[in-house]
Amino acid sequence: MGIIERKARQKADLRARILEASRAIVLADGFAGLTMRKIAQAIDYSPGTLYLHFAGRDEIARELCIGGLRDLVAALTPTAAILEPRARLEAVAQAYLRFGLERAETYRLVFMEDPTIVKVIYDRPEAGSDDDPGTQAYRLLAAGFFELQAAGRLKPAADPLVLTDAFWSSLHGVVSLKLTCPGFPATPVEILLPTLVKSLLDGMLV
Amino acid sequence: MGIIERKARQKADLRARILEASRAIVLADGFAGLTMRKIAQAIDYSPGTLYLHFAGRDEIARELCIGGLRDLVAALTPTAAILEPRARLEAVAQAYLRFGLERAETYRLVFMEDPTIVKVIYDRPEAGSDDDPGTQAYRLLAAGFFELQAAGRLKPAADPLVLTDAFWSSLHGVVSLKLTCPGFPATPVEILLPTLVKSLLDGMLV
DNA sequence: GTCTATAGGCTGATAGAC
DNA sequence: GTCTATCAGCCTATAGAC
């Protein structure tokens, strides 16, 4: 079986190299600059070869999208060490902003591009399961609000899931506005985000 | 002078027709679907003619961008009739969301596309003046927070301009997330936005 | 599996006739 | 001013040789 295994490994390797090269191109030229030709050139293969590993450009985009979301989860996860829920949510916000600004093109691809790309997150078989990065990221935030509720710190009748959505939407607003209109909210993000998070949580908690 | 005037008017008319056709194409096919050929075909002229009225595709995009912002201002302006500042800000939020969802492609073009397109808003000579739609939209929101401050209703040491930026960012977050990931914040916007706005303002006011 | 070659389409922008 | 024709380039995807 050694030969078959080796061939399978080589195939997986090339697939990984294709994705890695694609990631670099998206980083450098944006998603619009990602073309099959460029990818092939970057890994020294012919364009046709790519189609043996991916159905086409869209499939590569979807893989990158999921990978980016996985990276976001990885960037947010360390905050789980903070026990106090409000402090943890504030740390999540910081980490989220940081990720979005540092990995701008990745963030754009996942959250600001064509809806059909991000659609894969919900349509995949794992969607909703523990293995799904989208679910993991969401739970990371939702957990904080559930804990606050359990401690009786949420305003009565507040729905933790609705607050989670509101919180995430606000974070997304700061990041995405900064990426598209750098310099529009004149307030620097180091002040804007903490102010927003503080106001929001102050308004949500008793 | 009649002949010269007529020619000038004809020229301005064609320019307007080009923009109108472009707007329709962006509406139907998105910004990526806007091409010089399609525009020319829509108004029954040859592609070359477009270049007599615009330097190129980018200039058309910039004009559309400013026009879209102007429309946004028009959509928000009626709320100025509401005297009580908090109620007015809530109404602005509603109108903003409504505009973003109803004019999705326009909103995308102005606030979610290439930074170089929206850049024109700040670089134009009118930028910052009363005639500038960006400034007008911003003032519409900022006025509410200044009035709240004047009435002693803001938390001490709060900066109205920072709150304005935070408020706008949140609105943008709800709209843009909905446009890119329809169905991600599972909470329907009719609940999400009021919850967000209420929490935010509760946290900002004394 | 990988290559070369190419089909078949799109794009923005321009040159020169009228 | 407007047209036709075209340049020069890009793209995805595929067919057939090796």
Structure description:
- Two copies of one chain form a homodimer.
- Chain A has 206 residues and is mostly helical.
- Helices cover 72% and strands 0% of the residues of chain A.
- The first copy, chain A, has eleven helices and no strands.
- Chain A has helices at residues 2-29, 36-42, 47-50, 57-76, 85-102, 104-111, 115-118, 120-123, 133-150, 160-180, 189-204.
- In chain A, helix 1 packs across helix 2 (36-42), helix 5 (85-102) runs antiparallel to helix 9 and helix 10 runs antiparallel to helix 11.
- The longest helix of chain A has 28 residues, at 2-29.
- The first copy, chain A, is elongated and about 60 Å long.
- The first copy, chain A, binds a DNA duplex (18 and 18 nucleotides) through residues 11, 35-37, 45-49, 51-52, 56-57.
Keywords summarizing the entry:
homodimer; 206 residues; mainly alpha; 72% helix; 0% strand; elongated; DNA-binding
Average pLDDT confidence of chain A is 93
Q: What share of the residues of chain A lie within helices?
A: over 70%
Name the pair of protein chains with the most residues at their interface, and give those residue counts: A-B, 40 and 40 residues
Calculate Rg of chain A over CA atoms: 20 Å
Apparent shape of chain A:
elongated
Beta-strand segment tally of chain A: 0
Structural class of chain A: mainly alpha
Q: For the record, give the distance between the C-alpha atoms at the N and C termini of chain A, rounded to a whole number.
A: 64 Å
Report on the biggest sheet of chain A: none
Percent range for β-strand residues of chain A:
under 5%
> What is the overall number of helices of chain A?
11
